[in-house]
């Protein structure tokens, strides 16, 4: 496991923010740990955050990735995927992601994916336009330059010419129909669909117990990848 998790609430002036994230590292503990400590700080320091949160998040992701690349000697040669969710006054949810950790919201019992799984096969053209390639060997998943199984990530200096860190950003309104949000690394999603995950916890009122239940079910289904999970109930 090279995952780091954030689940926190922060008061900023008259505003309450819920800060939730999962950072799934590869070949590195230091980069996901750095993200856990600094990414939200970088986002909230953006002057446009309160007026244009999507723009602020995109810029903070870029700035953070640039810093990680510049400090590769100290932070290591690996990288990390990320899925982040900022809940603003329990009214608006802003989700961003790079990689294959996923955000799923459930409204009226229906699961809706808010993030995008950045798979190399889906971004082959842009990877090749940058001079890279996508391998697809029998028995293996597609990989950027035969190495990385995601097309976007923080860090990964050796692959960065062919790898993007541009996040997908989505904004969701929280209303009376909103039941819960699931953030999880790919170890859950490899063995459960979005709807299966939502159905599995719909009657579990305690968010921590719900997250544990999803992780346990992923293990029971034979998942061998990193399994981290955050559940936010509304």
UniProtKB/TrEMBL annotation:
Keyword Manganese assigned: yes
Coiled-coil stretches noted in the UniProt entry, renumbered to this chain: 190-221
InterPro entries: PP2C, PPM-type-like_dom_sf, PPM-type_phosphatase-like_dom
EC number: 3.1.3.16
Catalytic activity reported: O-phospho-L-seryl-[protein] + H2O = L-seryl-[protein] + phosphate; O-phospho-L-threonyl-[protein] + H2O = L-threonyl-[protein] + phosphate
PROSITE patterns recorded: PPM_2 (PS51746)
Pfam families in the record: PP2C (PF00481)
Top-level taxonomic group: Eukaryota
Name this polypeptide is given: protein-serine/threonine phosphatase
Lineage: Eukaryota, Viridiplantae, Streptophyta, Embryophyta, Tracheophyta
């Amino acid at each position: 496991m090279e995952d780091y998790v954030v689940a926190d609430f922060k008061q900023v002036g008259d505003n309450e923010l819920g800060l939730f994230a999962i950072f799934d590292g590869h070949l590195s503990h230091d980069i996901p740990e750095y993200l856990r400590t600094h990414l939200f700080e970088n986002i909230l320091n953006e002057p446009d955050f309160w007026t244009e949160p999507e723009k602020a998040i995109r810029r903070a992701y870029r700035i953070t990735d640039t810093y990680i690349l510049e400090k590769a000697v100290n932070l290591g040669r690996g990288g990390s995927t990320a899925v982040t969710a900022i809940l603003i006054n329990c009214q608006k949810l802003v989700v961003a992601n790079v990689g294959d950790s996923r955000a799923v919201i459930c409204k009226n019992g229906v699961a809706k994916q808010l993030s995008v799984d950045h798979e190399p096969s889906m971004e082959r053209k842009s990877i090749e336009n940058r001079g890279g390639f996508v391998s697809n060997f029998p028995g293996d998943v597609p990989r950027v330059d035969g190495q990385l199984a995601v097309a976007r990530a923080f860090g990964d200096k050796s692959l960065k010419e062919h790898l993007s860190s541009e996040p997908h950003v989505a904004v969701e309104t929280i209303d009376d129909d909103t039941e819960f949000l699931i953030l999880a690394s790919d170890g859950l999603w490899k063995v459960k669909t979005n709807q299966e995950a939502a159905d599995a916890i719909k009657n579990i009122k305690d968010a921590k117990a719900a997250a544990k239940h999803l992780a346990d079910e992923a293990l029971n289904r034979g998942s061998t990848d990193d399994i981290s999970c955050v559940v936010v109930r509304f």
